[in-house]
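Forwarding the complex inputs:
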Amino acid sequence: MDHPPSAAALVIGDEILSGKVEEANLAVLARTLRGLGVELRRVVVVKDNAETIAREVRDLSRTHDWLFTSGGVGPTHDDVTVEAVAQAFGVRVVSSPEMEAMLRAHYRERCTEGHLRMALIPEGAALEVTDEITWPTIRFENTWLLPGIPEVFRMKLPVVVARLRGGRAFVSRAVYVKMDEGVLKPLLDGVVAAHPEVAVGSYPKWFDASYKTKLTFDGLDEARVLAARDAFVALLPAGEPQKVE
Amino acid sequence: MDHPPSAAALVIGDEILSGKVEEANLAVLARTLRGLGVELRRVVVVKDNAETIAREVRDLSRTHDWLFTSGGVGPTHDDVTVEAVAQAFGVRVVSSPEMEAMLRAHYRERCTEGHLRMALIPEGAALEVTDEITWPTIRFENTWLLPGIPEVFRMKLPVVVARLRGGRAFVSRAVYVKMDEGVLKPLLDGVVAAHPEVAVGSYPKWFDASYKTKLTFDGLDEARVLAARDAFVALLPAGEPQKVE
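Prediction (whole assembly, two chains):
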């Protein structure tokens, strides 16, 4: 398979690791990146600890084309992502005059030191906006700082899309059968060996009468994806498949 | 804070990183472990690649008291977790006579080589069962191999609970207020500094009229957790809090 740009995600928050809050940003980020032709290759979830976050940011930003952090960008003591990213890249934390002015305009006489902490950025960070989304998203080199709150995370993604657009999107097809994985294995092994540019996935479904296993065929080249899918379908016995996508 | 036993989770599967399937095991694992007094400290999500999985298993199993893997334990080409765990611990993959007999009894004349792959284990692994859950869960030293399918993952958790039971469970309390994080920050900072044994979390809620921020107070000692929570409540202005748990 060709090598698409790679990405990693760093999910930050004690609330995820304690099970108080269900992680809800990963799947939407993964799908958004796939639509941009970017492959999410690794996700790490860590606690609200600046040293841990800094170490991960350093590692993940060096080994992937893009890194997206989720969480820890509010004003309280457990929001340490800006500080950690600055530490990872060896720069200071500074107040952005532009963001400080926006905060003062928004909160007016109610504006506190706590609110102004939301203007802090790693020195030299880019402030990414679109015409519609004017509150800046912080990006330091290849590292995007996204908020943890799912509704706000989703609101920010169009800024990422606007910046990364232009890649070659993945093609994804699927076949549904009532055969189990033990029976499918020899058929799949042949297709996997003959189509190295296509990623073949096999997902058993329990507690569903309409099919037993979903097979997926993914790649950057549509013709190759379809060839792998159709080669698999051609191997199936009478009565199969249940559905082809 | 006292140091409870630590745990890490390794989520395995291209389908999670591509966004085709939403990760659904992490929160239930986190809550189960907390009930056992075990702290989930780190989660890593990786692709179906044996070398990558082996490297993570080696690292995470050495740095945590327990490691739980999720996914990659079926019979197809993309199920490489058993092989990877064996590689991580430097042992061979062997067929368990006990599991092979169970598979042959279940599938009878329909039993294929594919089905028998589900009897493969890292040599020397323990096969964990309970009276109710008789299909074995593979454990190699401190590393538990759990399935990725959410319904089956949940079915297996009682086996983990039966084995780890006896720890001191975490105590978790919460306060809900209509104040925003910028205003709360100075109050929280004092409470955080005065109660080092209690983990204080602050979670803004958007799009909910009943409160604006949820504050959480967690620890192993109930009296200390309640003291931190009550110290915070005592600092609130008239009309707050909205709710105390």
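The longest strand of chain A covers residues 39-46.
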